[in-house]
Amino acid sequence: MSKKRKISLSEEELVLSLQHREKIAVEALYDMYSASLFGVISRIINDTAIAEDVLQETFVKIWHSFSSYSTEKGRLFTWMVNIARNLAIDKIRSKDFKNQNKNQEIENNVTFIDEQRNTVYKPELMGVKDLVQTLKPEQKLIIELVYFKGYTHVEAAEELGIPLGTIKTRLRMAIQELRKHFN
Question: What's the whole-model pTM score?
Fold first, then answer.
């Protein structure tokens, strides 16, 4: 099994390749700088998966905004580090990131409390899964995606290829239908 050889270019060669939008530029950029940029991002974001996503965003932004880079203003690496750093900071300041961390704390606490009380949420034991089977097929599918598989509304819409508004309407109608069984 042969290992892929890493590509290394001089900074001048890399800049020229990026300006000409050459494929080798992307490969060299990743091979030469991914570890360093990931290190910068990881110091700001402690979650490896999120840091990896920000690294990918960094390379995409570098590629799309390379025309704004100027050799007179500084070294290529410095410019890229600033992009990586700014994207990482934007991520931790984002509402999604903050909400995810808050939700994670709540989930961890609920799980801890359930373990202490020896209770576990099992919808099949409550009969909820049986009740879901009584719904219309399109409602049942959305309930399964959102509540049993953990999809967000947006992810469910993308998965099913239908508008977000339709997902929300069907979900609301399904919940109203299920409520009838508990009143």
Answer: 0.50
Please answer whether residues 63 and 27 qualify as being in contact, where contact means their C-beta atoms are separated by less than 8 angstroms.
Answer: no
* H helices present in the chain, as ranges: 11-19, 23-44, 48-64, 76-93, 95-117, 123-126, 128-132, 137-143, 153-160, 164-179
Which whole-number Å values give the CA distances from 73 to 16, 19, 78, in the listed order? 16, 16, 10
Q: Are 171 and 146 in contact (CB under 8 A)?
A: yes
- Residues of the chain with confidence (pLDDT) below 50: 1-2, 106-107, 110, 119-126
* Distance, CA of 101 to chain centre: 13
At which residue do the structure tokens 């799980």 appear?
111
Residue type, 116: Q
pLDDT tens per residue across span 80-113 = 998 999 899 888 887 665 555 555 554 455 455 5
- C-alpha count within 13 angstroms, C-beta hemisphere, residue 59: 19
